[in-house]
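RECORD TYPE: protein structure
NAME: Acyl-coenzyme A oxidase
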Amino acid sequence: MSSSSKPNLPVTNAVNGPPNADLVRERGAASFPVRDLTYLVYGGQERTEHLERIANMVASDPVFRKTDRFFLSRTEQYRRSLEKVRHYKELIAKHNLHSELDQQDLRQAIDEDLPIGLHVGMFIPTIVGQGTDEQQKKWLPLARAYKIIGTYAQTELGHGSFIRGLETVATYDKSTQEFVLNSPTLTATKWWPGALGKTSTHCVVFARLVISDRECGVHPFMVQLRSLENHEPLKGITVGDIGPKFAYETMDNGFLRFDHVRIPRDHMLMRFAQVAADGTYSTPPHSKVSYATMVFMRAYIIGTASSTLAKAVTIAVRYSCVRKQFPLRSGEPEQQILNYQNQQAALFPLLATAYAFHFTGNYIRQMYSDFVRGMRAQDFSVLPEMHATSAGLKSLTTWIASAGIETCRASCGGHGYSKLSGLPSLYANYIPACTYEGDNTVMCFQLARYLLKLYGKAQAKPGLRLPGNVSYLEKSTLLDERCDASTEELWLDPARQLHAYRNRALRLVANCANRLVAEMQKGKDEVLAVEAIKSDMVKVAKAHSYYVVLNNFVNAIEQLRASGTSTPILRVLKTLCDLFALHFIQADLGDFLEYGYLSSLHTEPLHAQIRRLLEAIRPDAVALVDAFNFTDHALGSALGVHNGRVYETLFEWAQQEPLNKTQVAPGYHEYIKPFLLAKM
Ligand SMILES: CCCCCCCC/C=C\CCCCCCCCCCC/C=C/C(=O)SCCNC(=O)CCNC(=O)[C@H](O)C(C)(C)COP(=O)(O)OP(=O)(O)OC[C@H]1O[C@@H](n2cnc3c(N)ncnc32)[C@H](O)[C@@H]1OP(=O)(O)O
Ligand SMILES: Cc1cc2nc3c(=O)[nH]c(=O)nc-3n(C[C@H](O)[C@H](O)[C@H](O)COP(=O)(O)OP(=O)(O)OC[C@H]3O[C@@H](n4cnc5c(N)ncnc54)[C@H](O)[C@@H]3O)c2cc1C
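PREDICTED:
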């Protein structure tokens, strides 16, 4: 064989050999029935088995392969994701997966940021939410059959967060009953929308409506961008890809400019605001109703924080079980790194958080359905609560999940830095969730503003009843109460845990409110006074959101207990809930100590209880990540493979590296050989 054409490496088929003995042993020693916990997470046996059928179908289909993704160029990755989209459509037809839920399950199993994500996640929901019945009748069948592909084009080069600052204009021309879309400045260029660059034929554009020189605010318009015959951009439209990003290579985030593009009057989505033929403008019933798709997506993102973090933790826990470093004493076998307390302290709180966020996802889904039901009956009263709660939870969950993935990566040592661990790409593709659908900090201001308002109302009107999650704002006497968890046992009391979180949230809200008043007393108007408390507002929003997450976890366990869930499952969930509660007090201890809510009388038993919880979780750690039930395809990680054959898999996957295609390095003749062979 020619030494330069083939690698001199053993061809292994070792990835499929017998499973790692440590993993087998740990799985055999779980204290609870793993399968039952899986059913609990996914909504029952039938649903779990359905999801498994879809996941296995995807995992065994070569079109959906992921293992070579790191060796593809950006263009190849984009093409590959289009191939996956085509195949996704073929599978829907072949297996009769026509329901929304089946298609969602299939996309979830494919597990890639496909360039139809925005079509499904924002374009169609915006038509459903903002279109009139006629508009829905016209566009929904086309969109659902993928006869048109759309996206959500709101953000511009110059503005993302400040929606009222958008510059794209839609001027109504009464004489032709058309809107004229225009990008008057460079900064008016739409910039970032997913799938806008190369894939979409249509989009919903957010533009400022102008009628006879009157500004009517930002509204959504349906615009065709490309020919349905040959995909060329239509006249007056400049569109393309925004170029390389941190990751997200499969997605053609795009730019878009309009040069006086005309669209018919009925292309403004007019469910809530209308422009009549003569130019008469009817205002929407709520000024922010056109922002509803963002609220929907924020709720969706909260739900995905759990599964994303769960993937990272699955990889890190399985690997930490297989990986061994150092004997404790010489002559003894080396320890699994998962036995080290520091490794447990890094990973188990994240494991607990993945379960906590699962229940937060259920909660926000329910809240969102109630909100939609109200909206259909023209009741917008829940909108402020829905907006504020989802804004805060979106921020907290994405921040924690992002940082958590990085913690998992670092806890896998050197192999965590290999892309083959799956963790770098999980991280890089996930972190924009802290920015898109509302920059997290900006979203925190929304929740803090809402809490400050309610607190002010409750102060002004004693006896006022506030909605469930914020009802603690009524009780200013809570501020005088102190923690009484002076033993390890007392720290396991959910009422005491919740008391601590409520007290911290109320104290931060009250402090913020007092500071606001103080700033105004110094002579600032309200706007400038708010500017002076902004970093505290972020803390307020996080504190409240932590409370909401914990409250839901505690309530969920109570409901499971009431519905007869078995003791071993309840026990392990309670341990996770305790660890979640205590870990995040420990992480923000300063907040609790600063105002004397806690003292060293309480912190010692707190730390001791956390150590006990880590020990309690250790024997179940593998079973707890197994219960998430990810296929190897979904994890895409040599370190997280279910059979634990980590080293075999790493070795085999590395053989695909293009540099290994030849024995002699490309560039050797030009750059290495000359100095190696140069005369001394
Ligand atoms: C529900 C779960 C269901 C699960 C079902 C699953 C089905 C899933 C199906 C499909 C999924 C497909 C998968 C898709 C995968 C895609 C991957 C993700 C891709 C990411 C795509 C990203 C897209 C984007 O980023 S789109 C652009 C997003 N942009 C933003 O978010 C901008 C952020 N800025 C704002 O939201 C606002 O401008 C603002 C809130 C910061 C301020 O607004 P402004 O107009 O300036 O208002 P202001 O004067 O400050 O406030 C006035 C009052 O209005 C209140 N308010 C503001 N916004 C809202 C709102 N949205 N709702 C209600 N009220 C609002 C504000 O609080 C003020 O109230 P006040 O009482 O006067 O104080
Ligand atoms: C991967 C990705 C996909 C995206 N997909 C889409 C899409 O499909 N459609 C779409 O329309 N958009 C999309 N976006 C755009 C996204 O929604 C915006 O980037 C996001 O809303 C943040 O807005 P911005 O970029 O204007 O940030 P900025 O608002 O400029 O934020 C920059 C910094 O300023 C701070 N800041 C901003 N305002 C204030 C304030 N009032 N007070 C204090 N601090 C402030 C922020 O906290 C942040 O730290 C996408 C973005 C990314 C990264």
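COMMENT: The longest helix spans residues 341-376.
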